[in-house]
Amino acid sequence: MQFIIVSGLSGAGKSITAANLEDLGFYCVDNMPAEMIPQFANICLATKGRYEKVALVTDVRGSLTFDTLFQSLEQLDAMHLEYTIVFMEASTETIIKRYKETRHLHPLTKNGDSVSQAIERERNLLAPIRNRANVIIDTSNLSTGKLRGMLIDLVEGGARERAMRVNVISFGFKYGLPLDADLVFDVRFLPNPYYIPELKMQSGLDDGVRNFVFQYQQTKDFLQKTEDLLAFLLPNYVDEGKTDLVIAVGCTGGRHRSVCIACALADYISRRGYVTSLGHRDMSRK
Questions:
Q1: What is the mean pLDDT of residues 28-40?
Q2: Fewer CB within 10 A of the end CB, N or C, for the chain?
Q3: What is the pLDDT at residue 65?
């Protein structure tokens, strides 16, 4: 089981980190009291695989005391449960700016401290857990995409392709563009098997149609150039933090050419390590 404990300064990005981990398949609990961590870990282990990825956020909101937290960590060690502590921090200036933008109160300003005083007080309070952290992330100059990329590297072991799902769909232009498409490829320039009587009622899933479409050099050239484009685009989308990408391939009716090309692109994308799904929106229309 992957077990991550997220802590750090208020305003440093713990909530965003938890949201990103949730997108990456983690079951996340925010504001977990330190004394409850071992019990929660036991519950997760008892499910026998249902919760293979767990992330907990614990900080000063839960009246974090390090004696209690370290006792909980010792219990995790006794359970032989491997865990990773991720500590989030940022410069005082950055955190002040974030609080001014959101107009939220810092949790330690209740005693009349200024925001800067509260930040420094919290920094001192959290020093022991920072010293125990496996990973320290300073978000002062990190974009959301860069933070996500760092978390992907942390939890996926560098296999960043697994962090983005790619959905390839074929469609017919006569029925309208897919509303959720990020990239649209128009293959109406390719020779159309619709006008071949024995192929008209078949689809792009049939060998006869595929052989017809792929016998032409323009089809092979288009596929090669599109694959080169995707080889460039996909890792850049991952770096920017995109979690879902929809690639739509269209021909006139969505039954022949678009189905052939969508199948070929989905196979190429899957072979590059991305989680890929394939759908044919209009293939069954009469």
A1: 88
A2: C
A3: 61
